[in-house]
Amino acid sequence: MGKTIIDKIWEKHVVHQEEGEPDLIYIDLHLVHEVTSPQAFSGLRMKKRRVRQPERTFATMDHNVPTVNRYKIDDPVALNQMTTLEKNCLEFGIPLAGMDSPEQGIVHVIGPELGLTQPGMTIVCGDSHTSTHGALGAIAFGIGTSEVEHVLATQTLWQTKPKTLKIEINGQLRKGVTSKDVILYILSKHGVNFGQGHVIEYCGEVIKRMSMEERMTICNMSIEGGARAGLISPDETTFSYLEGRKHTPKGEAFKKTVMQWRELASDDDAGFDRTIMIDANVITPMVSWGTNPSMTSGIKDSIPYLKDCKNELEQKSLERAIDYMGLKEGQKIADIEIQHVFIGSCTNSRLEDLRQAAEMVKGKNVHPTVRALVVPGSQQVKKEAESEGLDVIFQKAGFEWRESGCSMCLSMNNDIVPSGERCASTSNRNFEGRQGTGARTHLVSPVMAAAAALYGRFVDVSEKVSVEAL
Amino acid sequence: MSGFRTIVGKAVAMDRANVDTDQIIPKQFLKRIEKTGFGQYLFYDWRYTKEGEENPDFELNQPKNQSASILIANENFGCGSSREHAPWALSDYGFKVVIAPSFADIFHQNCLKNGMLPLKLQAEEVAYLIEKAQNQPYHLTIDLEKETVTDNNGFLASFPITAYWKRMLLNGWDEIEITLQLDEKIAQFERSRAVIS
Predict the structure, then answer these.
(1) In order of start, what are the domains of chain B with their CATH numbers?
(2) Does B59 touch chain A (CB under 8 A)?
(3) The domains spanning A5-275 and A287-455 adopt the same CATH topology
(4) CA distance to partner chain A, nearest, from residue B143 (Å)
(5) In whole angstroms, how large is the CA radius of gyration of chain A?
C-alpha cells in the first residue's frame, strides 16, 4: 500500500521514536504573534534558555492591531503586548514583520505570501488557524503557549502520529458557490468534531481546479471540524504560486526543489483511516445561523425545528443557539436582516476574495442601514488591491477600507459588533460573543457578504445577482 | 509544576456540548502577558450579566457548587481557539480536573501541559456524573496511579491516559528539560538533512 502525504512528511521529521511513546518531531517553521507568545518568552528567560533556531522562527503582529489610525492603540494592555513582542524578537534575534513593515499582516496570510510556507514542511503557530498553511502541502497545526515555548527552546514537539482522513470533493461547483461554501457545507454535514485526532487531506476534482487562495480557505477551517490539521497535496498550482516569492529558492535551485516537492503527493494507492466523499454539485451558497460553524444551512433553507433534533443534547444546543442569535425555528435564512458586514480574516482576506467582493459591489451602494468593512489580510494584499483600484470600488459603494489585521474576526481591537446586532462575516467562527459581547455572527463567503451589504439581508448570489467575477 | 497522585474534590456539572475556548475565556482578557490571574475572567459572559452582576442561573454561581475543583462537561469541550489562557483560567479559578466524553485536541494538550487532568469517560458515565452533581453537592476522587474515578457511593470508572502523560504528571516533570537531554540527537538530525528553506 502506498503512503499518504501525511505519512511522508511525518517520517521525514521524526527525531526520536520509542515504542508506545509520542514521537519527537522536528519543526521547520515556527510562526509567532503577539497574543500567545509573551508567556513563552518569559518562560525561556526564567530558565535562561535560548531560542534554538531564530531563523526558523518568524513573528508578526495581527490580533491587536488597529485597522484605522494604526499607531494609535488606546488600550495600554494591548499596547504592552505589542511592545513586548518587539522586545522579545530583538532579545532573541527573531525576524519580525512589525507595524512599520510592508510585510505585516495576518500571520496565516503572510506565511504563504512571503514563501515562508513551503510543501513538505512541519509548521506550527500559537493559533488554531495554522491549518491554513496546509494548502501548500505542509503539516501545519495550532499549538498552545507551552508548546510555543517548547518549540522556541528545542525546535521540536512531542506528538502522537495523527490518524488520516481523506475528504474527496468531486463534481462541479455552481456559479456563485465558493471554497468557503464548500467548507461550511462539510461542517454542516459532519459537525464540529468529526476531525478529532485526524489530519485531513482534501482532494478530488474540485480541489484540483481550485486556486491556491481558495485552497487556503478550505484548509483554514479544518480546525472548525476539530481536525489537527488539513492539507492538500502540492501540484502545479502550488509550484507556480510559490515561484518568485521572497523566501522560496530561486532559478535552478527552485526547479530542483520542485522535483522534491512532486514526490510529496499522496500515492494513488495510499490508505487512509477514514474517507468522506463530497458531491460538489449539490452545494449552494451557505450561511451560518447558530453559534458554532456546523450550525449552517444553504441560502434557500430555513432554521431547523427543535422537533427534528436527534437527541436532547442537540435540542438544548439548538435552543440556546437560536435564542442567542435572536432567531426562530423554521425562519427563512433569506429573511435575516443584517447591520454589519466584515470582509476579512485569515479565512477570506486575500486578493481573490477582495476581487470577488469588489466585482459584486462595483457601481452599487451599500444598504443605508448597513456598516461595511473591508480589512485586507496583509499590507501586501492591501497594496496589490489598491493598485487594481479595488479600494476605490469599495469606498465608492460605501465600504470602509482598512489597514491589515485580524480585526472583526475576533474583535480584540476596536472593530466590534454591538450587542444584539448582526454581522455577515467572512471569518471562521460564529461563537457567542466572538465579534463582541452579545454580537450575532453569520459566516458567509466574500461574495455573499458583499451581496448582503447591498441588500441588508442575505441573498442567493447564484440566482439574484449577476456575478461576472465567478 | 509539582507531581500528584490523587485529587479529591467537589464536582460541578456543566451540561453543554461544544463549549469553546471563547466562552472559557473571552478575547478581551487575552491581552495580558502573564500566566496568572485569569480565573476572575473564567466563563465571563456566562458568569456575569451585562450589568456586571453574578448571573444566578450559571452553574458555577450556585451556592452548592462553590469551591468545586472538578468540572464535568459534555462533548467536544474546549473547541476553537488554541489559547492556553483557557486552562490557565480554569486552573486559576481552582479546577484541577475536567471530565467530558471528548475534548478538542489542542485544549486537551494545553491542559496536560499545565498539570490539569482532562479526563475522557464514556458518554453514559459522564451522563451519570452530571445527573449526580446537578442535584446535590457531589465529591469525586481521581486516582492517577490507578487511572480511576470514584465517588462515595460505589461509582467506579477508569480513564485512558498515555504512559507518557501519566509519568509526566505523577512526577511533575518539566517537558522542555527532558527534551533538552536529547539535544545532541536534535543537532544530529539538523546536520543530517538538507535544509529545506
Answers:
(1) 6-192 (3.20.19.10)
(2) no
(3) yes
(4) 22
(5) 21
Binding-site residues from annotation of A: 346, 406, 409
Spans of all domains in chain A = 5-275, 287-455
In this prediction, residue B197 carries a pLDDT of 44
Domain A5-275 is classified in which CATH homologous superfamily?
Aconitase, domain 3 (3.30.499.10)
Q: Do A149 and B176 touch (CB under 8 A)?
A: yes
Of B83, B175, B190, the CB nearest to A36: B83
Top-level CATH class of A287-455? Answer: alpha beta
H/E element, A254: helix A251-262
| Strand partners of residue A342 | A373, A425
What are B27-82's pLDDT values in tens digits? Answer: 999 999 999 999 999 999 999 998 999 999 999 999 999 999 999 999 999 999 99
Per-residue pLDDT of A171-223, as tens digits, reads 999 999 999 999 999 999 999 999 999 999 999 999 999 999 999 999 999 99
pLDDT in tens, B142-155: 999 999 999 999 99
Q: Which of B79, B110, B186 sits opposite A193 (nearest CB)?
A: B79
Q: What is the pTM of this model?
A: 0.97
Which residue's C-alpha cell is 456546523?
Answer: A294
Cα separation, A218 vs A212, in Å, equals 10
How many CB atoms are located within 10 Å of the residue B195 CB?
A: 8
Average pLDDT over residues A404-414: 97
Q: Which residue of B has its CA nearest to A437?
A: B45
Binding site, annotated residues of A for [4Fe-4S] cluster: 346, 406, 409
* B142 closest CA partner among B105, B102, B99: B99
